[in-house]
Design goal:
nucleus; transcription; bZIP_sf; DNA-binding transcription factor activity
Length: about 140
């Protein structure tokens, strides 16, 4: 930039020289200040870009985490649906069996011994087991 010199009517070169020197120093100072301002602005812009990239990466990571958890949730919901259906089936079977027991108790149906419930009781208590029977097998 070319500096424009003003000519004053005082005619004194010393005063004009001092004014020109001050203008020149101010111009240099302003240029340096503008340079620092541009550097700060550039640094701030770079910081914002870095932060934006970091936030994008964090957003991707969180989105993936949410997607995985939603898949797990959906799988658990499906499994819970199966378990609810099985629970309902078992509840219905239990009600049916209870109704049969109630009916048997009302009609005084004799109980049939179940050897699996009492394995230590023999079905035929009058039957004797001989020692020689053990060796036949």
């Amino acid at each position: 930039m070319a500096s424009v010199q003003r000519v004053t009517s005082t005619g004194s070169d010393g005063v004009n020289g001092a004014m020109d020197e001050r203008k020149r120093k101010r111009m240099i100072s302003n240029r340096e200040s503008a340079r620092r301002s541009r550097e700060r602005k550039q640094k701030l812009l770079e910081d914002y870009q870095d932060e934006a990239n970091r936030l994008r990466n964090e957003n991707r990571r969180l989105s993936e985490n949410i997607r995985v958890r939603e898949e797990g949730f959906n799988a658990n919901e499906a499994a819970n649906g199966v378990l609810r259906a099985q629970t309902q089936e078992l509840t219905d079977q239990l009600k049916f069996l209870k109704s049969i027991i109630e009916k048997a108790e009302r009609e005084k149906i004799p109980k049939i011994p179940d050897p699996q419930l009492n394995p230590w009781q023999m079905l035929y208590p009058t039957q004797t087991i001989r020692a020689s029977d053990w060796f036949l097998h």
